[in-house]
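Saturday, quiet lab. Running sequence design on the structure tokens for the scaffold JK sent over.
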């Protein structure tokens, strides 16, 4: 597969790209009953995310391409099939090559929808 299936890319679940730390990213979000979220990201361009942290854990699984987690001076490259857990409160950033697709799970609310009324 070269893209997430259409049912996972409903306009009602599209993430507001202006609210993200990474330029050129397209995402779709699903909410858990406990306040957690799952997001499906596609990096449309090679990009670097701003450093940030969360008050919850963040899990990343790369499906296609490469995403490099950056924590302080450590660079952790993730390729298809690789997973990584970022503990809450840890300042991190990252770099993705164009075409990278990844699945993220957040232990709290991370993403806002583009169309909140849908």
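Result came back. Writing it out in full:
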């Amino acid at each position: 597969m070269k893209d997430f299936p259409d049912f996972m890319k409903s306009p009602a679940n599209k993430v507001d790209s202006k609210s993200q730390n990474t330029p050129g990213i397209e995402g779709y979000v699903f909410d858990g009953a406990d306040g957690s979220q799952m997001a499906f990201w596609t990096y449309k361009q090679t990009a670097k995310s701003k450093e940030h942290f969360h008050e919850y854990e963040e899990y990343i699984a790369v499906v296609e391409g490469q995403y490099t987690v950056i924590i302080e001076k450590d660079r952790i490259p993730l390729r298809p099939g690789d997973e990584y857990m970022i503990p809450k409160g840890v300042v991190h950033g990252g770099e993705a090559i164009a075409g990278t697709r990844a699945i993220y799970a957040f232990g709290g609310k991370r993403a806002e929808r583009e169309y909140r009324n849908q």
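Notes for JK: The beta strands are 25-31, 37-43, 47-52, 58-64, 67-71, 74-78, 83-86, 92-96, 101-106. The mean pLDDT is 93. Ask whether to fix the surface positions before the next round.
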